[in-house]
Design goal:
It is a single chain. With 81 residues, the protein is mainly alpha-helical. It is built from two helices and no strands. The radius of gyration is 27 Å and the shape is elongated. The relative contact order is 0.04.
């Protein structure tokens, strides 16, 4: 009796989550359709900004590593002398 009540509660929770997931997917599809109808290219703009931000981050990491390498090189030359 106790287990059947527990399993029923789990089934209800699963059904509720599935309904919420379907609702959120439908909402996302409606927003995408609405933005394409209005001619908004916000999704494409977000992708481009993401790419530029990623590229900028990668360049800054490379510059930082190069600066660190020259610092290590300077320190090692100073220690050897």
């Amino acid at each position: 009796m106790l287990l059947s009540h527990y399993f029923q509660k789990l089934r209800d929770d699963i059904r509720k989550r599935e309904e919420e997931m379907r609702a959120s997917q439908n909402f996302a599809i409606q927003n995408t359709n609405q933005s394409s109808i209005n001619g908004d290219n916000t999704l494409q703009g977000d992708r481009q900004n993401g790419f530029l931000g990623t590229a900028l981050s990668n360049v800054l990491v490379i510059v930082g590593l190069a600066m660190f390498a020259y610092t290590v090189k300077y320190v090692l030359r100073t220690v050897v002398e």
